[in-house]
């Protein structure tokens, strides 16, 4: 190790443990003195550099970190909340759509028969003796007007025909009571000209802007009622 | 079957908890061991106690966030100082803060001993060192890095680091002797 390199090493890194460097210190007293002087200078510099620390530095750092962890937690929660809210929103949006999908394939005959069955015991006894005026007052909003005699009308009122406002009439048939629905034709039901199930049967005909649905019991000759309605009600087109 | 799954879940849960705990312990140890060095290093590169403290806070927070990427605890010190230097560089990117001259608030009143006087001059000279000399010096004397470690961290040749250390110390020493000489002359 030459003089220049030795001097450089002594000043730059006096604690160097290289063999060459240590050997020169061991061989020459003045080299050793130079190294010791450099070591002392490093110590002096170190003591100068050792500025006072802020009080509780480490505690402050750890506190900051615990805040950050808490923040992250709340942020995470918010994230979960956002996802939950989004899912709820999507469900809220899509449920009515699903309902629509489900309700699309309903046919008018099935709905009519269900309606009649549900109210069977109620309609079997009712007799409000509805007058022609009363029938006409309600029928008017569907564009119909009774001209002749419809026979006994036990009941006439608006009803909810699977969500659609319809007219519900109960009339005297040959054998029993006959239910007549007047359903606006824009309600979107599948039109079934004739239909039946175990107990009931019926037919549908388009009259004016409405579908007239006639439902009676199995042994009821519905055609008669059908003709009666055709003959006695005039429809606006 | 039920018993098995329950036991497994419990184990999984407690390992997660243990991991969290271990991470926290590891972090606290790092903070306690290295925050003084980090602070002093920060202080000498920015010359402001408050900014230095902020820098160390930010450094430690960043370290916490990526603590999992620190695989070997032996490299923790170098890793932390690298983060600190990056944070400092970021501070300058954000905005050029006015440099506080250390003379403004460090010098106060009289010094009763010549040793105190000498230290004060050293302080001023260290602050005034160009950063390419100052950084290796601080890394050596505050953090205790070897020349090789400094070379790796600053992405320099080892000989360059040695030269810069040599020059830095020579500059400080020569200014010191010239000061005492001037002093001597002034009084003589």
Task: Describe the 3D structure.
The complex is a heterodimer of chains A (237) and B (188). Chain A is of the alpha+beta class. Chain A folds into 2 domains: 3-49, no CATH class; 108-235, no CATH class. Chain A contains 8 helices and 8 strands; from the N terminus they run αααααααβββββββαβ. In chain A, strand 5 (194-196) and strand 6 form a beta hairpin. The longest helix of chain A has 47 residues, at 57-103. In chain A, 26% of the residues are buried. The mean pLDDT of chain A is 87. Chain B is mostly helical and 188 residues long. Chain B folds into 2 domains: 1-98, Rna Polymerase Sigma Factor, Chain: A (Orthogonal Bundle); 111-188, Winged helix-like DNA-binding domain superfamily/Winged helix DNA-binding domain (Arc Repressor Mutant, subunit A). Chain B contains 8 helices and no strands. Chain B has helices at 2-46, 49-65, 76-94, 102-106, 114-128, 131-141, 147-154, 158-187. In chain B, helix 2 (49-65) packs across helix 3 (76-94). Mean pLDDT of chain B is 79; it is low at 103-111 and 184-188. Chain A binds chain B through residues 8-9, 11-13, 38, 41-42, 44-51, 53-54, 57-58, 60-62, 64-65, 68, and chain B through 27-28, 31-32, 35-36, 39-40, 43-44, 49, 53, 56-57, 60-61, 64-65, 119, 122-123, 126, 137-138, 140-142, 146-147, 162-163, 165-166, 169-170, 172-173.
């Amino acid at each position: 190790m030459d003089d220049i390199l030795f001097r450089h090493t002594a000043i730059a890194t006096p604690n160097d443990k290289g063999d060459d460097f240590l050997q020169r210190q061991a061989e020459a007293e003045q080299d050793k003195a130079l190294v010791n002087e450099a070591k002392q200078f490093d110590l002096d510099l170190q003591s100068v550099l050792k500025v006072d620390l802020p009080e509780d530095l480490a505690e402050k750092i750890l506190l900051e970190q615990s805040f950050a962890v808490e923040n992250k937690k709340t942020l995470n929660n918010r994230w979960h909340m956002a996802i939950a809210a989004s899912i709820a929103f999507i469900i809220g949006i899509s449920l009515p759509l699903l309902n629509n999908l489900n309700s699309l394939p309903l046919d008018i005959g099935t709905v009519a028969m269900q309606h009649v069955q549900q109210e069977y015991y109620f309609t079997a006894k009712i007799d409000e003796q509805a007058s022609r005026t009363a029938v006409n007052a309600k029928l008017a909003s569907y564009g119909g007007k009774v001209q002749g005699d419809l026979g006994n009308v036990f009941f006439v009122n608006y009803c909810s025909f699977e969500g659609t406002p319809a007219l519900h009439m109960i009339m005297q048939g040959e054998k029993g009571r006959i239910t007549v629905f007047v359903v606006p034709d824009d309600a979107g039901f599948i039109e079934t000209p004739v239909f039946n199930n175990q107990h009931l049967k019926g037919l549908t005909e388009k009259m004016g802007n409405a579908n007239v649905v006639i439902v009676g019991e199995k042994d009821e000759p519905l055609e008669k009622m059908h003709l009666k309605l055709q003959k006695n009600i005039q429809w606006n087109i | 079957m039920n018993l098995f799954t329950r036991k497994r879940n419990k184990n999984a849960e407690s390992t997660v908890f243990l991991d969290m705990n271990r991470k926290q312990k590891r972090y606290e140890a790092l903070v306690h061991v290295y925050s003084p060095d980090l602070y002093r290093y920060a202080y000498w590169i920015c010359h402001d106690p408050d900014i230095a403290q902020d820098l160390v806070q930010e450094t430690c927070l960043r370290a916490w966030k990526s603590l999992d990427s620190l695989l070997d605890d032996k490299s923790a010190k170098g890793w932390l100082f690298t983060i600190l230097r990056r944070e400092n560089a970021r501070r300058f990117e954000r905005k050029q803060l006015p440099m506080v001259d250390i003379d403004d608030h460090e010098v106060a009143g009289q010094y009763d001993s010549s040793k105190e006087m000498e230290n004060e001059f050293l302080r001023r000279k260290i602050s005034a060192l160009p950063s390419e000399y100052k950084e290796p010096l601080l890394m050596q004397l505050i953090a205790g890095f070897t020349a090789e470690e400094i070379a790796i961290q600053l992405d320099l040749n080892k000989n360059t680091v040695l030269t810069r250390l040599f020059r830095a110390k020579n500059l400080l020493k020569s200014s010191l002797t010239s000061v005492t000489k001037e002093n001597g002359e002034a009084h003589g």
